[in-house]
Amino acid sequence: MRLSTRAIHVGQNPDPTTGATVPPIYATSTFTQAAPGEHKGYAYARGTNPTRDGLAAALAAVEGGSDACCFGSGVAATTAVVQALLRPGDSLVAYSDMYGGTFRLLERVLKPWGLVTRYTDSNDPAALAALVDDTTKLVWIETPTNPSLRLLDIAAVAAQCRAAAERRGTRPMTARGGSPMDHDLGLLLAVDNTFATPALQRPLELGADLVVHSTTKYIGGHSDVIGGAVIARSAALIAPIRFYANAAGGVPGPFDSFLVHRGLKTLALRMERHSANALRVAKWAAEQRGFESVAYPGLPNHPDHELARRQMSAFGGIVTCVLRGGLEAARKFMTSTKLFSCAESLGGVESLVNHPAIMTHASMPRELRERIGVVDGLVRLSVGIEDVEDLIEDLQQALRVATGG
User: Fold this and answer.
1) Among 20, 144, 263, 355, which is most buried by a count of CB atoms within 10 Å?
2) Same domain flag for 259 and 298
3) Can 400 be counted among the known catalytic residues?
């Protein structure tokens, strides 16, 4: 089955009792057992729930993974990857151009826990590899990045990871203790695929070991649910993550799982429209004097345009613009739009406008924010699936207000 078919049919078998085409939401916290330990595969819903399991199966199918594990948020999914697979004293290598919430998690939560993170400001795969040492267990990238929309060559980064692991002689699945989490799994590559989604980019096929999503965004697609997921290339990788999910919690409830799964079914269609609308908006914005710069991987002048053409099937629904006039102009622009709501998040059917320096990336030091391009005049447009002419007219009138004409 191809992607759209998998998104609709995997994890959605008709209910065996009633024949319901869409399975019921299993709104139960516990499951009746015939005798202690004798059950039908379900005992307590923190560990497993049929609604959540259906979503996990569908996510694994669309990403081409062995299995998936669902979480209550994207940040919870990221936390699970680190704490299930690494130990205090291990190190992580990352591209510094990343979501502000991930940076906050790494520096303010996981650093005190014992994680060492080393960053590079370059998206050259060799720059990431240069930071790997004997303590490095994970390389973390997102592509396209949030909000600067830079790309990393996933296949090249994966090759660098394999070469680095071979040089240091790391063997996968080296036991470190008795728990399912106590294994040295070697040097892993995790890719945050939230912006591209499996409809446009499949990192596991390019050599990544893990894919992480905030399913709140395009996969859910309707701005009505918070969720996250980890999809693994192999069962050996998903086992410790699933153990962590049950042991530490942070899993989504059945209603949230149902909403994300319902959104997944239309992902491919929505991403076509998001991408088409965003390309139109980006081309329009690139011609406006009120914008100092416009970033979109689909524009020929984007520094990673050729990589985007090779690695992605379309260019996504996010456009970033820097307004002439800095913060004051950005404020006027964002408070003047009618269809673009000033809000956190992205990826819903409706269009949103965000100010990363104040909103999503406020936890980053100003020097680092500006180094990765998150300046005060930058706004991030999450281009929805409305009529694109209406969206451009809305942006045009807001730009006139922001620039005084």
Assistant:
1) 144
2) no
3) no
